[in-house]
Amino acid sequence: MSNILSIFRKELNSYFDSSLAYISIFLFLIITGIGFFNFSFFIQKQADVRDLFFFCSAVFVVTIPAITMKTISEELKNGTLELLTTYPIRDFEIIVGKFLASFILLLVTIALTFVYTFSVSTLGNLDEGIVIGGYIGLILMGATLISLGIYISSATESQVVALIISVAITFFWVFLDNILVFISGNVRIIDFLAIDSHFANIQRGVVDSRDLIYYFSFTGLFLFLATRKLASRKWS
Known about the structure:
Elements: H1 2-17, H2 20-43, H3 49-68, H4 73-78, H5 80-85, H6 91-111, H7 114-121, H8 128-153, H9 159-174, H10 188-193, H11 195-203, H12 209-234
């Protein structure tokens, strides 16, 4: 546990010692805020907090890959990963520590959107179930996408390559549910794999165990794959 905390603190400090955290948070809030208020207030002419969660999940496509692109790639490029592995630190402790740092940054970013939720609450009564479900959904989706980004970062020394691949895969995964309208026949498998369909279920205010299992399973899978990737580099 002490090793995980050490990696966690080091990684979290690296975010806030650079401009990455501040730029990611700023862009996330600006894009979601402009999209939400323009669409909800000026186009739909109603304040619906569900639109906020939709824009947040959409902006994840860019912001989460930006957060995770350097987690392992930077260590590989600078050669510090080899130095790190000479210490009595296991591979999974490195991955979990970096995951937790990225996850905390995500939580801070999501928490700042409470300003938008509060703005809507001043205009009418909020459905607490939808608000709670929406934020739980964002946190679970974000955790899964972070684990995916860390795995991709562990596969390349280039942060730019990690960013591009992460954005492409995240975009496809987040919007996979939208292609169902163009597919005829049995689409249950695609609907199950689509991360947004599970997010939509939770966003309605109903937290189903199947959706929780989905997010926890994929998060664990990508963290496991990232750990195995680190282990394989020792023997390459």
